[in-house]
Amino acid sequence: MAKICVHAVISGRVQGVWFRHFTREQAQASAVTGWVRNLSDGRVEALLCGEETAVRHVEAWLSRGPELANVAEVTSTDREYQPDLDGFDIIETDAE
C-alpha cells in the first residue's frame, strides 16, 4: 500500500470544540502521523501522513469533526510523503 501525506485546512466552527484533540485521537487510532494546529483566522490546519487508506479515513473524519464542531469546508492537498514524522502532535499557536 502506498504511503501519502495530505495537507488539510478545515473551516467552520472548529476552534474551541476540541477539534485538535479528537483529530489526534483519530490519527493515532489509524496509525497516521503528522500534526494539527489552530490558525489565527479561526480555521484548523492538519498534516496527515501514513498508509493511504488510513490517511483517507482520517481525512474523511475531518469533514464531520467532533460532536460540537460544525465543519463548513475541508480543503485538502496531497503532499509528498514525509517519512521523518514520528507520532501525531498538537501544535500550540497564538490562536488559542
CATH architecture: 2-Layer Sandwich
Distance between the termini: 37 Å
Bulk shape = globular
**What is the CATH topology?**
Alpha-Beta Plaits
CATH class division: Alpha Beta
Q: Mean pLDDT score, rounded?
A: 95
The poorly predicted ranges are none
Number of helices: 2
Number of strands: 5
> Order of strands across the biggest sheet?
4-1-3-2-5
Derived from helix and strand composition plus strand pairing, the structural class reads alpha+beta
In N-to-C order, the SSE pattern is EHEEHEE
* Beta-strand fraction estimate: 35-45%
Report the biggest beta sheet as strand number plus sense, adding barrel if it closes.
Answer: 5 strands, mixed
Q: Brief description of this entry?
A:
This protein is of the alpha+beta class and about 100 residues long. The chain has helices spanning about 20-30, 50-60; strands at about 5-15, 35-40, 45-50, 70-80, 90.
Furnish the topology, listing elements before pairings.
Elements: E1 3-13, H1 19-29, E2 33-38, E3 44-51, H2 52-62, E4 70-79, E5 88-91
Description:
- The protein has 96 residues and is an alpha+beta fold.
- The protein has a single domain (3-77), classed as 2-Layer Sandwich (Alpha-Beta Plaits).
- Helices cover 23% and strands 41% of the residues.
- The protein is built from two helices and five strands.
- It has helices at residues 19-29, 52-62, and strands at 3-13, 33-38, 44-51, 70-79, 88-91.
- The chain has a five-stranded mixed β-sheet, covered by helices on one side.
- The longest helix is centred in the first third of the chain and has 11 residues, at 19-29.
- It catalyses: an acyl phosphate + H2O = a carboxylate + phosphate + H(+).
- Belongs to the acylphosphatase family.
- This is Acylphosphatase.
